[in-house]
Write a structure and sequence with these properties.
- By secondary structure, the chain is of the alpha/beta class.
- It has a single domain, classed as Nucleoside phosphorylase domain (Rossmann fold, 3-Layer(aba) Sandwich).
- It contains eight helices and ten strands.
- Strands 1, 2, 3, 4, 5, 6, 7, 8, 9 and 10 form a ten-stranded mixed beta sheet that branches.
- Helix 3 packs parallel to helix 7 and helix 5 packs across helix 8.
- The termini are far apart.
């Protein structure tokens, strides 16, 4: 049996997230999630967030809460990759999370589309494994929260573009042929989590949002590293502020 036959919607889970994770009192219903240590430090410092617990995935992953706009929001620094981010998302849902805003870097597959704009994925190509355990097999999974996030960015006057994205487990096997095939289908970005977390959110009945910023570029004769791993502070701070403002607005939306 191949991975495309793995979805078992009626099957009983041997390890239930709710059984494996203790409840945290007053756990926030809306959480902001990043993928880099520097963004995590910046957000904790900007909000004065208080640690309320932790997840464990080979390392301790603190989970925080903070007040913003009269509401209590949560925050954590997710591991990179579809399987890891999906597993920690499961634990956050089991503890009471209902709305999640993920944000992180991506590789650009079309520098004319991604330059100077944030990206709102509308669908993710499922070149990973986790999503096939949460949704029926198919090439793409739709991001059902995309238009809500687009409306928030319009209200905030944030430059953005809607796009498909290519979610892959194999960072070092992004071949030229596969890149061109995804670009032909309308993917302007490549990353490692979107399809996985969207599938988990849909299966568990929670709202998962995501936006991306282009760090490196695959749209050319070779790889252009650009700001991957070396984002200047004056670029990081505005993105963190956008993420915080968007999360505050998402917290006001009905679940």
């Amino acid at each position: 049996m191949s991975i495309i036959h793995s979805f078992d919607p009626a099957g009983r889970e041997i390890i239930s997230p709710s059984e494996a994770n203790e409840k945290i009192p007053d756990f926030p219903e809306t959480l902001l999630v990043c993928f880099t240590e520097k963004f995590a430090e910046l957000i904790v410092g900007r909000t004065g967030a208080e640690q309320i617990g932790a997840f464990f995935a080979g390392r301790t992953i603190p989970v925080y809460k903070f007040a913003r706009g009269g509401r209590t929001l949560g925050f954590y620094h997710s591991p990179v990759g579809g399987a890891a981010s999906a597993a920690i998302l499961e634990e956050a849902i089991a503890r009471g999370g209902k709305r999640f805003l993920f944000f992180g870097s991506c590789g650009s597959l079309d520098k004319n589309i991604t330059a100077g704009k944030l990206l709102v994925p509308v669908a993710a190509y499922r070149d990973e494994g986790a999503s096939y355990h949460y949704a029926p097999a198919g090439d793409y999974i739709k991001v059902i929260t995309a238009e809500r996030l687009a409306a928030i960015f319009k209200e905030m006057q944030v430059p953005f573009v809607r796009t498909k994205t290519w979610t892959t487990d194999a960072f070092y096997r992004e071949t030229q042929r596969n890149m061109l095939a995804r670009k032909e289908e309308g993917c302007a970005a490549v990353e490692m989590e979107c399809a996985s977390v969207m599938a988990v959110g849909r299966f568990r009945g929670v709202d998962v949002y995501q936006f991306l910023y282009a760090a490196d570029c695959l749209d050319g004769d070779g790889w252009d590293r650009r700001i991957l791993g070396a984002m200047p502070d004056d670029m990081r701070a505005p993105i963190a502020d956008i993420a915080l403002d968007a999360a505050e607005r998402i917290a006001c939306l009905p679940h």
